[in-house]
Specification:
Elements lengths: L14 H30 L1 H9 L5 H27 L5 H30 L3 H4 L3 H13 L16 H28 L1 H7 L6 H26 L4 H27 L9 H15 L6
Helix pairs in contact: 1-3, 1-6, 2-3, 2-9, 3-8, 3-9, 3-10, 4-6, 4-9, 4-10, 7-8, 7-9, 7-11, 9-10, 10-11
């Protein structure tokens, strides 16, 4: 990471150089493991999980919507190695919070998978839902790869009056969406129907853990927007844009599901709402310092 690359003295590598080397290798390992997690989610577990879902007695809208969300989460999983690659040459002021954010995403995903597996099958659930392991490893490696905090952090990004209004309006909209997704969605929508249905294990706990992680994704948008008001401009711009990409992944999955005819019972307003959230978030980035 460019912000921390300094040469050692003439007597040999300085401790800082060794630290940078460790961070570089750790970042590379996290990128490889995140790609492995994306491959596992997209190509290895998708077919058995979605076959079990579509063969269940859950309502058609539930089956179609959770299938759509699985593909959206596959797209989000592929953003992780891309993000790590982008951070390779980013300054420390950007890389440090971005890696912490990625660690939180992967750590919560691993936690939900472990909890769902233990709830459904006891200790055997740790083997039937093995994707928790690469997510946990990526979380640990991303956290360890964080560079030291810069001695002179950048100034918070400036926002004019119009952009401040947009920022707080977007925060309110995305915050309400996150609360609705967590409370109404979890207890009165697709995951509730999933639990009442006969979807076979390990598909049921995997899908439920996926839903819980989607709550984290939705909650991260207003959280990052508020954080960006105090963060250095470059870091705020980077992470606000990344959260917009996360929402856009779900929007794209929902849109393609409707276009390809795989969601006849799904609400067509979903992509519009997600697209609006993604656009508003992307437009709420702070100005360059």
């Amino acid at each position: 990471m460019a912000g921390n690359r300094e040469a050692g003295d003439m007597n040999g590598p300085a401790p800082l150089t060794k630290t940078i080397r460790f961070q570089t290798w750790t970042l590379g390992a996290a990128a490889l493991l995140s790609a492995a997690a994306a491959i596992l989610h997209t190509f290895v577990q998708a077919t058995p999980t979605l076959d079990a879902l579509m063969a269940s007695t859950a309502a058609p809208e539930t089956r179609q919507s959770l299938r759509m969300m699985w593909h959206g989460m596959s797209a989000i999983a592929w953003t992780h190695p891309v993000l790590l690659a982008l951070l390779w040459r980013r300054p420390a002021g950007v890389a440090r919070p971005a890696l912490a954010f990625l660690a939180v995403l992967n750590g919560t995903q691993a936690l939900f998978l472990v909890a769902a597996g233990l709830w459904a099958e006891g200790a055997a659930g740790l083997l039937s839902l093995p994707q928790w392991a690469p997510h946990a490893a990526v979380a640990a490696l991303a956290w360890a790869a964080r560079p030291s905090a810069p001695t002179e952090p950048g100034r918070p990004g400036h926002r004019g009056r119009a952009r401040l209004v947009l920022l707080w309006a977007t925060t309110i909209v995305t915050g309400c969406a996150a609360v609705y997704h967590l409370i109404v969605g979890t207890f009165h929508s697709w995951p509730a129907d999933l639990l009442d249905g006969d979807t076979a294990s390990p598909a049921k706990p995997a899908l439920y853990a996926m839903w819980l992680f989607s709550c984290v994704v939705f909650a991260s948008v207003p959280a990052v927007l508020v954080w960006s008001t105090r963060a250095p401009a470059a870091a705020g711009r980077f992470l606000v844009r990344y959260t917009a990409v996360l929402v856009a992944c779900l929007m794209a999955s929902w849109t393609l599901t409707l276009i390809l005819g795989y969601g006849p019972d799904m609400l067509p307003a979903g992509p519009v709402t997600l697209g609006l959230m993604a656009a508003l978030t992307a437009m709420s980035v702070p100005e360059r310092a």
